[in-house]
C-alpha cells in the first residue's frame, strides 16, 4: 500500500504539473479550457468551476487539458435542427436546447435555418408559428443536450485564434513545468537535507585498495594530484578514473600537516572500458544554505537533463535497445525500490522522472508536445498553418504507434519483473 501511495503521489505530481503548465498558459492567452484531467478513461470525480471541469479519471497513465476549438470541440447547428431557445433580458440567447423536450413556457422552439456560434454569434430560422426570427447569441451561452451543458466558445476564445507564439508557448509550457518541478524538488532537498559540499575529503580507506597501500588515511583532505590543485571530489574522482595503472602523486592535509603520497590506481574493466580505482569511500558533508540550495537545484536539474538526453541519444543510435525502456510497471517497481531508502531518495527519483517526462514530451513525434511544436515550426516557415485534417491524421497515427509502443514496453516490464528467473 505504501508503494501504491508513493507511486500515485510521484506520478500524479508529474502529470499535474505538466498539465498545469498547459492550463496556466492557455488561460493567460485567453483560451477557454473546457477540462483539466488527470488520467484517462471513465471519469471518477468531476468538479466544475467557472468554464472548466476538473476531473480525475480511471487510468492513471497521463492527463490532458482540453481547450476550446481543439479535437472536434466545435458545435454546429445544421439547417433543419429543431432547437429550444431561452432568451435573457438583454434579448440574447443564453441557452440552446438540442434534441430535448423542455416543458417551459419561456422556451422558444424553432427550426434552424442558419447560425454562427463562433464569430457573428447569431441564430435564425422559423418559429413554430411559421415566423422567421433571428436572435443574437450571448458570448457565454450554454448548449444543453441530453442534460449535459457546454459553454459555447467564441472564436477569440479558441486555441486556433491565438498567435503562433501564444499557441507554441501554451504547448511548450507542459514540458517547461516539468523542468520547473524538478528544480523545485532539488531545491527542497537542498533546503531540508542540506547541500553536499563536494569537498575531496576521504571518508574511509579500504584495507584492500591501492590507497591503503600508498599510505592514505581516513579524513585526508586531498589538495593536489600530480601538482594540480583539486577543489572538489568530482575532480578528484575523474582524475583517478582516467589514470588506471599509472602512479599518481597526492598532496593531502592530515591533522593540519601536508603529506605527500604516491598511489597507483588499480585497473578496472567494465563494458569494454578501463578506468582507475584506489579503494576509498566518500560521503559528502552537507550544509544548509538557501543560496547554495538554489544553485544546487539548478545544477542538479541541468546535470540530469544532460544525462537523460545523452541516454536518449544512445537509444536512437542503437546503443540501447527497446528492452531498456520502462513503462508504468517499470516505474512502479523502481519507485517501490527507491521508496525503501527514505523520502529524500524518493524526492530525488521524482525530480529525475519529471525531467525525463519533459524531455520525452519534447521529442518531435506525432501526438507529443514536440510533434505539435514541429507543426508550428512548419507554419512559421510556410507562413500559414498545415491543413488541420492532415495534421489530425498524423497525430492520430502517432497516438496509435505510441499505444503500441506502450503495450510492448509494459509487456517487457511484466516479463522482466514477474516472470524472469
From TrEMBL:
<keyword id="KW-0812">Transmembrane</keyword>
<feature type="domain" description="PDZ">
    <location>
        <begin position="181"/>
        <end position="256"/>
    </location>
</feature>
<keyword id="KW-0472">Membrane</keyword>
<dbReference type="GO" id="GO:0016020">
    <property type="term" value="C:membrane"/>
</dbReference>
<protein>
    <recommendedName>
        <fullName>Zinc metalloprotease</fullName>
        <ecNumber>3.4.24.-</ecNumber>
    </recommendedName>
</protein>
<dbReference type="InterPro" id="IPR004387">
    <property type="entry name" value="Pept_M50_Zn"/>
</dbReference>
<dbReference type="InterPro" id="IPR008915">
    <property type="entry name" value="Peptidase_M50"/>
</dbReference>
<dbReference type="Pfam" id="PF17820">
    <property type="entry name" value="PDZ_6"/>
</dbReference>
<dbReference type="GO" id="GO:0004222">
    <property type="term" value="F:metalloendopeptidase activity"/>
</dbReference>
<feature type="transmembrane region" description="Helical">
    <location>
        <begin position="392"/>
        <end position="411"/>
    </location>
</feature>
<dbReference type="GO" id="GO:0006508">
    <property type="term" value="P:proteolysis"/>
</dbReference>
<keyword id="KW-0482">Metalloprotease</keyword>
<keyword id="KW-1133">Transmembrane helix</keyword>
<dbReference type="InterPro" id="IPR036034">
    <property type="entry name" value="PDZ_sf"/>
</dbReference>
<dbReference type="InterPro" id="IPR001478">
    <property type="entry name" value="PDZ"/>
</dbReference>
<dbReference type="Pfam" id="PF02163">
    <property type="entry name" value="Peptidase_M50"/>
</dbReference>
<feature type="transmembrane region" description="Helical">
    <location>
        <begin position="6"/>
        <end position="25"/>
    </location>
</feature>
<keyword id="KW-0479">Metal-binding</keyword>
<keyword id="KW-0378">Hydrolase</keyword>
<comment type="similarity">
    <text>Belongs to the peptidase M50B family.</text>
</comment>
<keyword id="KW-0645">Protease</keyword>
<dbReference type="InterPro" id="IPR041489">
    <property type="entry name" value="PDZ_6"/>
</dbReference>
<feature type="transmembrane region" description="Helical">
    <location>
        <begin position="346"/>
        <end position="368"/>
    </location>
</feature>
<feature type="transmembrane region" description="Helical">
    <location>
        <begin position="171"/>
        <end position="192"/>
    </location>
</feature>
<dbReference type="GO" id="GO:0046872">
    <property type="term" value="F:metal ion binding"/>
</dbReference>
<keyword id="KW-0862">Zinc</keyword>
Amino acid at each position: 500500500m505504501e508503494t501504491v501511495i508513493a507511486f500515485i503521489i510521484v506520478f500524479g505530481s508529474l502529470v499535474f504539473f505538466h498539465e498545469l503548465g498547459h492550463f496556466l498558459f492557455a488561460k493567460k492567452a485567453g483560451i477557454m479550457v473546457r477540462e483539466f484531467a488527470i488520467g484517462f478513461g471513465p471519469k471518477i470525480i468531476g468538479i466544475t468551476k467557472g468554464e472548466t471541469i476538473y476531473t480525475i479519471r480511471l487510468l492513471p497513465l497521463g492527463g490532458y487539458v482540453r481547450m476550446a476549438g481543439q479535437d472536434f470541440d466545435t458545435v454546429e447547428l445544421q439547417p433543419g435542427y429543431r432547437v429550444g431557445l431561452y432568451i435573457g433580458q438583454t434579448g440574447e440567447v443564453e441557452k440552446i436546447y438540442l434534441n430535448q423536450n423542455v416543458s417551459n413556457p419561456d422556451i422558444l422552439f424553432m427550426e434552424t435555418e442558419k447560425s454562427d456560434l463562433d464569430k457573428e454569434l447569431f441564430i435564425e430560422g422559423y418559429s413554430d408559428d411559421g415566423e422567421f426570427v433571428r436572435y443574437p447569441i450571448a458570448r457565454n451561452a450554454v448548449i444543453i443536450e441530453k442534460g449535459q451543458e457546454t459553454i459555447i466558445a467564441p472564436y477569440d476564445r479558441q486555441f486556433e485564434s491565438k498567435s503562433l507564439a501564444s499557441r507554441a508557448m501554451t504547448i511548450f509550457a507542459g514540458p517547461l513545468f516539468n523542468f520547473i518541478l524538478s528544480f523545485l524538488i532539488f531545491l527542497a532537498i537542498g533546503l531540508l537535507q542540506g547541500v553536499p559540499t563536494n569537498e575531496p575529503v576521504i571518508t574511509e580507506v579500504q584495507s584492500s585498495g591501492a590507497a591503503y597501500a600508498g599510505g592514505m588515511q581516513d579524513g585526508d583532505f586531498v589538495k593536489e594530484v600530480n601538482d594540480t590543485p583539486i577543489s572538489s571530489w568530482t575532480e578528484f574522482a575523474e582524475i583517478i578514473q582516467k589514470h588506471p595503472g599509472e602512479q599518481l602523486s597526492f598532496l593531502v592535509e592530515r591533522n593540519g600537516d601536508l603529506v605527500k603520497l604516491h598511489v597507483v590506481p588499480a585497473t578496472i574493466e567494465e563494458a569494454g572500458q578501463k578506468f582507475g580505482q584506489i579503494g576509498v569511500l566518500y560521503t559528502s558533508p552537507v550544509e544548509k544554505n538557501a543560496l547554495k540550495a538554489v544553485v544546487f537545484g539548478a545544477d542538479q536539474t541541468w546535470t540530469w537533463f544532460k544525462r537523460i538526453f545523452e541516454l536518449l541519444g544512445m537509444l536512437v543510435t542503437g546503443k540501447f535497445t527497446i528492452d531498456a525502456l520502462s513503462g508504468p510497471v517499470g516505474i512502479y517497481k523502481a519507485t517501490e525500490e527507491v521508496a525503501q531508502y527514505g523520502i529524500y531518495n524518493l524526492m530525488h527519483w521524482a525530480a529525475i522522472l519529471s525531467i525525463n517526462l519533459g524531455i520525452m514530451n519534447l521529442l518531435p513525434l506525432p501526438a507529443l508536445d514536440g510533434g505539435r511544436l514541429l507543426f508550428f515550426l512548419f507554419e512559421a516557415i510556410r507562413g500559414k498553418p498545415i491543413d488541420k485534417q492532415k495534421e489530425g491524421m498524423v497525430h492520430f497515427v502517432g497516438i496509435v504507434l505510441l499505444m503500441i509502443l506502450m503495450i510492448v514496453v509494459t509487456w517487457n516490464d511484466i516479463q522482466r519483473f514477474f516472470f524472469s528467473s
